[in-house]
């Protein structure tokens, strides 16, 4: 289970902090550990890492002087936690301008509205079916990568042209993009199945209210 998510600049400024379970007694200590980790990070630090405690783990992805961190239960798969953080990082950097979120005059929690995306994404990664689908897609992508690597090695052994090896690399990139798109599609389909009926019910109620008072 993903418990808490934060986006923090390396100077200590918190850009986003997710709404979490305030009743967890250990959460305060864990967040103190997060602050300690931030203080030790530099732009040259390991870009992805996980730190385990007795019951929980702290995972981070570091990019462009910003750390994307998640506190999870220790049993939660490390690979999935880092994939989740990569999705959060990609969306944040796509949604906001670099010069803005690195502005020295920026106030804390300036991007609190981004928590809506974090909560939606977290629900996707909490779903056990999504976990299984992501694992399956990652395994398929790994198989494709192994096959392509073997084919490239065969080309080198036979002394074939660099043009053929370039074509092989292009196909690998295309397959990687295909599996990533498939993973995103599966995740959103799960969200639609889970929350679609509530949305449809809300729409019906809204139409009835408009009809009643019009």
From TrEMBL:
Entry's localization field: Endoplasmic reticulum membrane; Golgi apparatus membrane
SMART domains per UniProt: Longin
4Fe-4S keyword on record: no
Residues in V-SNARE coiled-coil homology domain copies: 133-193
Keywords: Coiled coil, Endoplasmic reticulum, Golgi apparatus, Membrane, Protein transport, Transmembrane, Transmembrane helix, Transport
Residues spanning the membrane: 195-213
GO cellular component: endoplasmic reticulum membrane; Golgi membrane
Positions of the Longin domain: 6-118
Gene3D superfamilies in UniProt: 1.20.5.110, Longin domain
One biological process term in Gene Ontology: endoplasmic reticulum to Golgi vesicle-mediated transport
GO molecular function, one term: SNAP receptor activity
InterPro entries, per the entry: Longin-like_dom_sf, Longin_dom, Sec22, V_SNARE_CC
Membrane topology label: Single-pass type IV membrane protein
Domain of life of the organism encoding this protein: Eukaryota
Pfam families in UniProt: Longin, Synaptobrevin
Keyword Transport carried by entry: yes
Family, similarity comment: Belongs to the synaptobrevin family.
Stored PANTHER family: VESICLE-TRAFFICKING PROTEIN SEC22B
Identification of the protein by name: Protein transport protein SEC22
Organism, scientific name: Dissoconium aciculare CBS 342.82
Lineage: Eukaryota, Fungi, Dikarya, Ascomycota, Pezizomycotina
């Amino acid at each position: 289970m993903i418990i808490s998510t934060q986006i923090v600049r390396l100077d200590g400024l918190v850009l986003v902090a997710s709404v979490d379970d305030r009743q967890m007694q250990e959460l305060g200590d864990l967040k103190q550990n997060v602050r300690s980790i931030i203080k030790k990070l530099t732009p040259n630090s390991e870009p992805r890492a996980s730190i385990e405690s007795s019951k929980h783990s702290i995972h981070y992805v570091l990019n462009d002087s910003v750390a994307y961190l998640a506190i999870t239960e220790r049993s939660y798969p490390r690979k999935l936690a880092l994939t989740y953080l990569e999705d959060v990082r990609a969306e944040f950097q796509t949604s906001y301008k670099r010069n803005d979120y690195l502005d020295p005059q920026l106030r804390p929690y300036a991007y609190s509205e981004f928590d809506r995306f974090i909560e939606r994404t977290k629900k996707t990664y909490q779903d056990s079916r999504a976990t299984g689908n992501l694992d399956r897609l990652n395994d398929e992508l790994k198989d494709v990568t192994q096959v392509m690597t073997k084919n490239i090695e065969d080309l080198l052994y036979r002394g074939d042209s660099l043009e053929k090896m370039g074509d092989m690399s292009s196909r690998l990139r295309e397959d990687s993009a295909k599996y990533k798109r498939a993973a995103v599609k599966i995740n959103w389909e799960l969200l639609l199945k889970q929350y679609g009926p509530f949305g449809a019910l809300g729409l019906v109620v809204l139409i009835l209210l408009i009809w009643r008072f019009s």
